[in-house]
């Protein structure tokens, strides 16, 4: 049993070496039941050097990662969750399976290639992954369907749940034996204009690893934010200003497009709306083909009207930026750190009539982050400075769960432990206290590179013989009685890695063992002026009145039998009134036997 | 464990499995062949069909001229077509806990079961099965409701009267269980009970049984089901295909180690090779078009039609017929074509990889874009003004008794230039054509049934080795038309258990074990001892807790300490209330220490049996 025990009371470790108390780069290593799983493989957008990729030397100093990892799971296509994937698989070296959903598998390589182009072709960086590496990396991807239980190997299974957030985003449950962990990636608990809300069943994982980007925020209603957004866009356009909305090609962009499209239609507005990148049309096509991943309403009506076919939104050309008059432009990337959005920003920043609306989170170090912090002078490449005169607005449209949402998810999944990642330390602290108070579970928030161990306490699965179980359930009655628990006895047979619980009789038979009979005998002396037979009769009547629930027999050969207990009465010829009562019982009836001997020692009622 | 067989139809099954206190219905097929006994429902007034003579028995004794009409030398029922339902009397259908659907063709009787039997359970199906199933049901309802019939014929069903009717009506069975079509409300209500599942998803039923759908390769979202507990495994194989068409390939390895395999939905045309049929289809089509005739393809609105369109997409250009228009006419034509493009996850690898580009997985998107394929909800409206001949028309219903196809039969039947090509295997084409005879148009029978044939199934069974096989009776004997073809039947060892409508089979199962969990505290307290090499034994005394069919063993709670009071004496005077059986004793008694111990306690006089007992068993 020793070996069994140590295997059963396993523990596992979560090491986050990219996603600790920091937003920007998700990469978590989980060890559960002897299996090592990498959750996400993200890249930090705020850095341009080695720091942008996770530090894989944490896993191994030299050589490939294949033998150290059982699988890699990517939650969604945002680069802070998958950006380091080709680097990890092709440059560091990993040949095992990489799991992601179909939409992620479709979109991820496009974003990676897009990013590679900006980094290598435009900025001229070397030592970066190539197009071929992205292709080779994607060949290792195994697509994951929602709710499908994927058996990675004989012990390790994973299952994906819908996470909202962006098209194809998934939460994953990882299970080895009776231990399990759920990793959320980024998720959204409120449905928006194009995606549904995250959902998970009450799977009671040992650990829930949740993002906590908006750990302290409880956002006002979506409707208010939308109204606010439309009002600001409308006002700027009315006064002839230009609106820049930096977005990522897929995700928020589609939601805001749907929003503006319906608004323009309703208000009959004429100002042009542009979408800057060539990706748009392609992106919208993905939404059409993966319509089953969008929300209920869009799915229901897609045959009549596909929400991703826009009438008012047209493709942007670089030259349009200098056009006079109002316009609205969606441009990538979302954090103003490079590319077209930064170009347009530079052109428009000097005019106070214009506006930039940041609809999502900006990582430290990006232009987006700087202007959101109120910086009015920006240092550009080549020592030039840029005066920021245009209005800067921040609107949280990024579909992360807020504090309320995180609590909601905990209520859904009922984890035994909680681990917060992908957030800022101070905010996480606040949420951690709240979680520990409300759910009385331990909550961890490891820093980058820190390892957290969580001890689990799994129960031991055993095969019980149906005979024994049925007998027990019949005796125990339909409902358990908390006051009088019934003890059942069985014999656990451990053989060839199997654990079987059978009745003691069956165990003896099966193992070819003979049963020992252990009987106790006891003599009780008693004065009773009757014949032996009458004394026995009196004992019989007495026991009958005391032991109401037991079967008591008075056998003609001069014995009284209670269950397995045999009672006889003898006396010597010299002292006929001094009766010697002989009691004998088996070990199995020990309790009753000793009770009877005590009872009879007190004498018979007259 | 029992299996109740509510349908004898091998490809439209409806069975109920009772397994470990759960009652599971496997599929809910609707036998629409009963419609063949009815007159076609024309969409446009048909002088021919409205002037048919009524039927009166030869001696004039039975006059059913209102209900029965003579048409092309046969007698048909003049009423809204009816369908043969699964048997409702064999067991109380309100006790069904769940219904597992294997593909959209096998769920058409769902509203009859969920709406009219007191059913309160859940239906499990994959998303494509639900969505396309809904389309097929809505189509059926629209076909019926577009041409309402005032009267419902019932007199002919009277046993005494039916006996006197001419063939095939005389031999129709279970006519009293026939029902007319359900309504849209019933469809919506029935489908609201569906819970979506994905392939390989493990669904727990009441903690007792786990069910899992597996890809069966037959149609979009089609599944076989595994129904298992920790110790027993039943596989339900229904409508599976090993051919590479559009759906995800069949998952076979998970079917291994089954105790019982229920096998239904094999090919209905075991002698026809689907690829050969497809070739014949194309060549007949080309021949007719070249001669200036039209081609009518009666078909369901989803399924093989996607493959036909894909095949024609490649074929037409190479045959120099690129300008021939295709028309797909059905109330759900547009939806069916659109839906087929959004289920990438459920498609075969090579279609799946298209959406990554991103491109629509089926080429019919291109056919629509280039105006080669046009779809219309019905022959009324735009179609009548836009249609050009010669053309190819795909339309339902394949029984030729209702739907737009009836109109085309009336329209094109008289010309020998035109051709009707039957591709659906569900109906005998001769029976389907009966009310339209005499017919000038050419008839070609190219049934395309991609389901497993006997050769494939015997190879499959050899691979997965189920202990027992249960199948419909027809699979255990050669087809009646080819009694010498012993290769067209299942020959297995042990022989398969055959069922027919209303059979109740006891399945050969002996459940011996159940899963139980020892709480970690209990597990830690156990003291195992090695009896022989590799075999250890530990005595377990614990409290059993059973909840939701899950069993847990907890340590015996320590008795609450009795407060030291005067009443304490009374406590011992109560007899022990429950008899807790003590473990049996066995093993070697260490004689020397035992004797020494006895010797010692003899001197102290107070020989407590308890102590000696304990020392004895150590």
Automatic annotation (TrEMBL), chain A:
PANTHER family: CLEAVAGE AND POLYADENYLATION SPECIFICITY FACTOR FAMILY MEMBER, INTEGRATOR COMPLEX SUBUNIT 11. CDD domains: INTS11-like_MBL-fold. SUPFAM superfamilies: Metallo-hydrolase/oxidoreductase. One of its GO terms (molecular function) is RNA endonuclease activity. Residues 253-371 form the Beta-Casp domain. GO terms for biological process: snRNA processing. SMART domains: Beta-Casp, Lactamase_B. Belongs to the metallo-beta-lactamase superfamily. RNA-metabolizing metallo-beta-lactamase-like family. INTS11 subfamily. This is Integrator complex subunit 11. Residues 24-241 form the Metallo-beta-lactamase domain. InterPro entries: Beta_Casp, INTS11-like_MBL-fold, IntS11_C, MBL, Metallo-B-lactamas, RibonucZ/Hydroxyglut_hydro, RMMBL. GO terms for cellular component: cytoplasm; nucleus. Its cofactor is Zn(2+). It comes from the Eukaryota. The keyword Metal-binding applies. Pfam families: Beta-Casp (PF10996), IntS11_C (PF21386), Lactamase_B_6 (PF16661), RMMBL (PF07521).
TrEMBL record, chain B:
Gene3D superfamilies: 3.40.50.10890, Ribonuclease Z/Hydroxyacylglutathione hydrolase-like. The lineage of its organism: Eukaryota, Metazoa, Chordata, Craniata, Vertebrata. It comes from the Eukaryota. Keywords: Cytoplasm, Nucleus. Residues 549-579 are annotated as: Disordered. One of its GO terms (cellular component) is INTAC complex. Residues 305-433 form the Beta-Casp domain. SUPFAM superfamilies: Metallo-hydrolase/oxidoreductase (SSF56281). This is Integrator complex subunit 9. It comes from Cyprinus carpio carpio. It is found in: Cytoplasm; Nucleus. Its main location: cytoplasm. GO terms for biological process: negative regulation of transmembrane receptor protein serine/threonine kinase signaling pathway; regulation of cellular response to growth factor stimulus; RNA polymerase II transcription initiation surveillance; snRNA 3'-end processing. Belongs to the metallo-beta-lactamase superfamily. RNA-metabolizing metallo-beta-lactamase-like family. INTS9 subfamily. InterPro entries: Beta_Casp (IPR022712), Integrator_9su (IPR027074), Metallo-B-lactamas (IPR001279), RibonucZ/Hydroxyglut_hydro (IPR036866).
């Amino acid at each position: 049993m020793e070996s069994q025990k140590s295997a059963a009371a396993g523990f596992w470790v979560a090491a986050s070496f990219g996603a600790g108390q920091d937003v920007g780069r998700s990469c978590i290593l989980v060890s559960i039941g002897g299996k090592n799983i990498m959750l996400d493989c993200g890249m930090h957008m705020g850095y341009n050097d080695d720091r942008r990729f996770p530090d894989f030397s944490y896993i191994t100093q030299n050589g490939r990662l294949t033998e150290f990892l059982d699988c890699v799971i990517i939650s969604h296509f945002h680069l802070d969750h998958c950006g380091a994937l080709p680097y990890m698989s092709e440059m560091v070296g990993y040949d095992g399976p990489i799991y992601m959903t179909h939409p992620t598998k479709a979109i991820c390589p496009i974003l990676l290639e897009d990013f590679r182009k900006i980094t290598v072709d435009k900025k001229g960086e070397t030592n970066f992954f190539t197009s071929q590496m992205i292709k080779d990396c994607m060949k290792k991807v195994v697509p994951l369907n929602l709710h499908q239980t994927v058996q990675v190997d004989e012990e390790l299974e994973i299952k994906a749940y819908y996470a909202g957030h962006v098209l194809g985003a998934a939460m994953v449950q990882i299970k080895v034996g009776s231990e399990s962990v759920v990793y959320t990636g980024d998720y959204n608990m409120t449905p928006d204009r194009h995606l549904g809300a995250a959902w998970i069943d009450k799977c009671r994982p040992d650990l829930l690893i949740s993002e906590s980007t908006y750990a302290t925020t409880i956002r006002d209603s979506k409707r208010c934010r939308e109204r606010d957004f439309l009002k600001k866009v409308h006002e700027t356009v009315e006064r002839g200003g230009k609106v820049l909305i930096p977005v990522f090609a897929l995700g928020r962009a589609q939601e805001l497009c749907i929003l503006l499209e319906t608004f323009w239609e309703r208000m009959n507005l004429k100002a042009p709306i542009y979408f800057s990148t060539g990706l748009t049309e392609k992106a919208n096509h993905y939404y059409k083909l993966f319509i089953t991943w969008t929300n209920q309403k869009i799915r229901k009506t897609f045959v009549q009207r596909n929400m991703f076919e826009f009438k008012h939104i047209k493709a942007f050309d670089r030259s349009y930026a200098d056009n006079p008059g109002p316009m609205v432009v969606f441009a990538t990337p979302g954090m103003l750190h490079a590319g077209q959005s930064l170009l347009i920003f530079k052109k428009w920043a000097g005019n106070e009539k214009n506006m930039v609306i940041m609809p999502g989170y900006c990582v430290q170090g990006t232009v987006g982050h700087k202007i959101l912090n109120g910086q009015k002078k920006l240092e550009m490449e080549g020592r030039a400075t840029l005066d920021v005169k245009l209005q800067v607005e921040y609107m949280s449209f990024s579909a992360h769960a807020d504090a309320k949402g995180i609590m909601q998810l905990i209520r859904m999944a009922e984890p035994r432990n909680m681990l917060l990642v992908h957030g800022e330390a101070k905010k996480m602290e606040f949420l951690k206290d709240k979680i520990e108070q409300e759910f009385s579970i331990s909550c961890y928030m490891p820093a980058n590179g820190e390892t957290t161990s969580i001890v689990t306490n799994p129960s031991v699965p055993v095969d019980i013989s149906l005979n024994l179980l049925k007998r027990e359930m019949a005796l125990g009655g339909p409902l358990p009685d908390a006051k009088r628990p019934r003890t059942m006895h069985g014999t656990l047979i451990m053989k060839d890695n199997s654990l079987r619980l059978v009745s003691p009789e069956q165990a003896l038979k099966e193992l070819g063992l003979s049963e020992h009979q252990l009987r106790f005998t006891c003599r009780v002396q008693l004065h009773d002026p009757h014949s032996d037979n009458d004394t026995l009769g009196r004992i019989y009547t007495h026991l009958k009145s005391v032991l109401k629930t037991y079967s008591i027999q008075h056998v003609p050969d001069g014995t009284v039998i209670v269950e397995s207990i045999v009672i006889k009465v003898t006396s010597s010829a010299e002292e006929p009134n001094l009766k010697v009562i002989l009691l004998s019982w088996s070990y199995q009836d020990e309790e009753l036997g000793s009770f009877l001997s005590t009872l009879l020692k007190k004498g018979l009622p007259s | 464990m029992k299996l109740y067989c509510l349908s004898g139809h091998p490809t439209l099954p409806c069975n109920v499995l009772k397994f470990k206190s759960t009652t599971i219905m496997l599929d809910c097929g609707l036998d629409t062949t009963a419609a063949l006994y009815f007159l076609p429902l024309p969409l446009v007034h048909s002088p021919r069909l409205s002037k048919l003579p009524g039927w009166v028995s030869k001696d004039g004794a039975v006059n059913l001229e209102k209900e029965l009409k003579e048409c092309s030398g046969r007698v048909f029922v003049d009423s809204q077509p009816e369908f043969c339902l699964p048997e409702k009397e064999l067991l109380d259908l309100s006790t069904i806990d769940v219904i597992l659907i294997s593909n959209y063709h096998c769920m058409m009787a769902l509203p009859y079961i969920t709406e009219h039997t007191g059913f309160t359970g859940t239906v499990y199906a994959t998303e494509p099965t639900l969505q396309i199933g809904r389309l097929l049901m809505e189509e059926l309802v629209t076909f019926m409701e577009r041409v309402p019939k005032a009267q419902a014929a019932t007199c002919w069903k009277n046993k005494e009267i039916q006996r006197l009717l001419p063939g095939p009506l005389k031999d129709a069975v279970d006519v009293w269980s026939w029902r007319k079509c359900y309504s849209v409300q019933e469809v919506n209500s029935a489908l609201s009970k569906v819970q979506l599942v994905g392939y390989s998803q493990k669904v727990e039923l009441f903690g007792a049984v786990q069910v899992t759908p597996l890809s069966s390769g037959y149609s979009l979202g089609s599944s076989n089901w595994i129904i298992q507990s920790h110790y027993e495994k039943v596989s339900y194989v229904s409508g599976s295909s090993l051919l590479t068409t559009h759906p995800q390939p069949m998952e076979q390895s998970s079917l291994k180690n089954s105790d019982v395999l229920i096998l239904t939905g094999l090919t209905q045309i075991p002698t026809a090779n689907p690829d050969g049929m497809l070739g014949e289809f194309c060549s007949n089509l080309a021949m007719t078009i070249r001669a200036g005739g039209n081609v009518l393809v009666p078909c369901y609105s989803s399924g093989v039609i996607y493959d036909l369109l894909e095949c024609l997409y490649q074929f037409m250009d190479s045959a120099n017929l690129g300008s021939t228009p295709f028309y797909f006419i059905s109330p759900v034509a547009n939806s069916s074509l659109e839906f087929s493009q959004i289920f990438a996850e459920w498609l075969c690898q090579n279609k799946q990889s298209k959406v990554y580009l991103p491109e629509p997985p089926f080429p019919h998107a291109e056919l629509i874009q280039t105006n080669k394929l046009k779809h219309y909800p019905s022959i009324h409206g735009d179609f009548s003004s836009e249609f050009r001949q010669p053309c190819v028309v795909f339309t339902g219903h394949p029984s030729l008794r209702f739907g737009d196809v009836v109109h085309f039969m009336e329209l094109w039947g008289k010309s020998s230039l035109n051709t009707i090509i039957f591709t659906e295997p569900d109906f005998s084409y001769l029976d389907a054509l009966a009310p339209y005879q005499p017919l000038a148009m050419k008839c070609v029978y190219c049934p395309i049934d991609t389901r497993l044939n006997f050769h494939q199934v015997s190879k499959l069974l050899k691979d997965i080795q189920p202990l027992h096989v249960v199948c419909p009776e027809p699979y255990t004997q050669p087809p009646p038309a080819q009694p010498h073809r012993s290769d067209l039947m299942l020959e297995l060892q042990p022989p398969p258990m055959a069922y027919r409508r209303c059979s109740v089979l006891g399945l050969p199962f002996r459940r011996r074990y159940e899963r139980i969990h020892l709480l970690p505290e209990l597990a830690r307290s156990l003291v195992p001892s090695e009896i022989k090499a590799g075999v250890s034994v530990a005595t377990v005394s614990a409290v059993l807790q059973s909840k939701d069919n899950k069993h847990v063993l907890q340590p015996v709670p320590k008795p609450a300490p009795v407060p030291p009071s005067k009443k304490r004496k009374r406590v011992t005077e109560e007899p022990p209330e429950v008899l807790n059986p003590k473990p049996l004793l066995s093993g070697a008694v260490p004689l020397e220490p035992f004797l020494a111990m006895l010797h010692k306690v003899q001197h102290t006089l107070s020989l407590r049996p308890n102590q000696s007992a304990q020392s004895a068993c150590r």
